[in-house]
Design brief:
Length: 136
């Protein structure tokens, strides 16, 4: 579901809520909808908050769980269609870029340390050889 835009995800989420509501005769929990769509609870929570901000769904929290209701499914049509990059996608790309940069820095540091170690051993070996030559 990661390759879908918000418009298509909204349709899928609303459809999943409707199906589960029909099957169980009560509004579904977030976990149940995420399980049906095979997405993580974190991704589902992010999408549900986004749809709640748009006025498409409503969530009601009780002591044990959060139940989902469809408020106004017609507002899905107000969401821009296409592969619009979400804030989450942007943040993920930024994180991956910074992670790649950090990995490169660590690798270059490790290479520099290995080179230092090599030079240090070469210098130590040279000193030992000159020390043995002086004694003989």
């Amino acid at each position: 579901m990661n390759d879908l835009d918000l418009y298509r995800k909204a349709h899928l989420l609303v459809a999943a809520i409707r199906i589960l509501e029909y099957r169980r005769h009560s509004p579904p929990a977030i976990e149940t909808v995420c399980e049906l769509l095979e997405i993580s609870t974190e991704e589902g929570g992010f999408l549900f908050r986004k749809l709640e901000e748009c006025g498409i769904i409503e969530s009601v929290e009780n002591a044990q769980e959060i139940r989902l209701y469809i408020r106004d499914h017609l507002k899905i049509e107000e969401i821009p269609k296409g592969a619009a990059e979400t804030q989450l996608d942007k943040e993920l790309k930024n994180f991956q870029t910074s992670r790649k940069g950090l990995t490169q820095k660590v690798e270059s540091f490790q290479a520099a340390q290995a080179e230092k170690k090599k030079q240090m051993f070469a210098e130590l070996e040279k000193k030992l050889k000159t020390g043995f030559e002086k004694k003989s």
